Structure formats: C-alpha cells, structure tokens
Amino acid sequence: SLFEHVRDVAEDTRVVVEALRIGPEWAQRLDVAANWHDVGKAHEVFQRMMTAPGEADERYRPPNDHTIWAKSNHTIGRAQRRHFRHELASALAFLQRYTGPDINLIAYLIAAHHGKVRLSIRSLPGEQEPTRPECEGLFARGVWHGDTLPEMDLPDGTKVPETTLDLRLMRLGVGSWLERTLGLRDDPDIGPFRLAWYESVLRLGDHRASARERKGANK
Q: Which of 114, 137, 101 is nearest to 206 (CA)?
C-alpha cells in the first residue's frame, strides 16, 4: 500500500541520513519530504494504472478496494493522461497544507525525487488538455488544475484531508513555482549543489525501500 511504501522510504532515508552524518536541520527536512514524496500517487490517474491488469497475469492485479496503492506486482497499465508525474501532485498537495520558511525547499525535494520536475512546471507536447472549464487551461505533467486527492494518513501521524490541487503557481510572477525554485538555487545557504545532493539522498532512500519491497514480494 501507499502507507507502507512511504513508511519504508522514510525509514530508509533516515538510514542514509545517519550514514552520511547529515545534520539535524536537513535531516528534519528530508524526513518531511520522505513522508510526502508519494502522496500524489493517490491521484485517480495513478491508482487506475495500479489496478489495471495491462498485459500481465490477472492473478497479480491489485484488488479494486479502498486501499491506496504505491506499487503493483504486475506490468501496470498506461496512464490515462500522458506524461503524468505523481511527484508534481505530491508537491502541490504539500504546498497547500503547509506554510513556513522551509516549505519551498521541501516541496522542491518532493517534486525532484525522480529527476523529472525541478525548476519549472510546464506542459509537454502531446499532453491531454483539460476537459473541465474550471481548470482555467492550467495543466502540466498530467496534472490538471482542480484535480483532487483523497484524504489519507501518513506514517508520521499526519492526517491529510481531501486536497484540491492548485496549479496557478505554474504561471509566472510573484509566488510562482519558478520564483520559488530560483530563490532556492540562488540562496547562498542552499544553492544548486546542495539541492542536487539532498535530492539524491531522498532518491536513494526511495530506491533502497523499493528494492527491499521487491525482495520481500519475491520470497
């Protein structure tokens, strides 16, 4: 389930943090990012991929119950929306729940943990355009303005309410994603190299957890 995978990633990220002797300030940021990194997998587009049999054996199809899935033991189906990135939905959900001095940094780590979303948010050629007028023409990486994520519990005890995703920050100007991320890049206490380093730490925690889960599933 998503809860179990996020729990595993948070645990493995803490192992990496300890091994690298990362200080408490960054350790806390990474712990929050690890707990939120896959919240966007609760999006209906991702969940339909998880529960679609694709070309695999029907026996390995996850049950269509109320469980929110992070992984599937079969070849997943195709996304209904081309270029869909769950990590963008995760970062948007995080930004809509929290305020404070570290939110942009943590949101960046969440968005960047697969290396697909970093300084900019933009739609790509061939994306399906929104069919809902309330989307205001805002869409990127398969996420539409106004999409919703269901309520869920996170392993750190956070209760995430149903969230309506706001993509207005893909526009230019004050408060935009671009302004936020360029601020991180140009911050002398953070900068591009620390962003890349800590992005890699979170990704390594994710990879370690996924490898453990695959090993357990194949026993």
A: 114
Token pair of 7, please? 């729990």
**Residue 100 and residue 84: Cα distance in Å, rounded?**
28
Bridge partners of residue 143, in order along the sequence: 140
- Backbone Cα Rg of the chain: 17
Determine contact, residues 175/121, Cβ cutoff 8 Å.
Answer: no
Count the residues in the chain: 219
Of the candidates 77, 74, 7, the one whose C-alpha atom is nearest the C-alpha of residue 45 is: 77
Phi, psi of 148 (to 5 degrees): -120, 150
So what's the pLDDT on residue 100?
A: 86
Query: What letter would DSSP give residue 102?
Result: T
Helix axes 103-112, 86-97, angle to 10 degrees: 170
Average pLDDT over residues 100-112: 96
Residue 79: per-residue pLDDT: 65
In degrees and rounded to multiples of 5, residue 206 shows phi and psi of -65, -45
Could you give the CA distance from residue 92 to residue 94 in angstroms, rounded to a whole number?
Answer: 5
Give the mean model confidence (pLDDT) for residues 74-86.
Answer: 75
Check residue 206 and give its pLDDT: 95
List, in sequence order, the alpha helices (H) in 37-176: 44-51, 86-97, 103-112
Cα distance between residue 174 and residue 177, in whole Å: 9
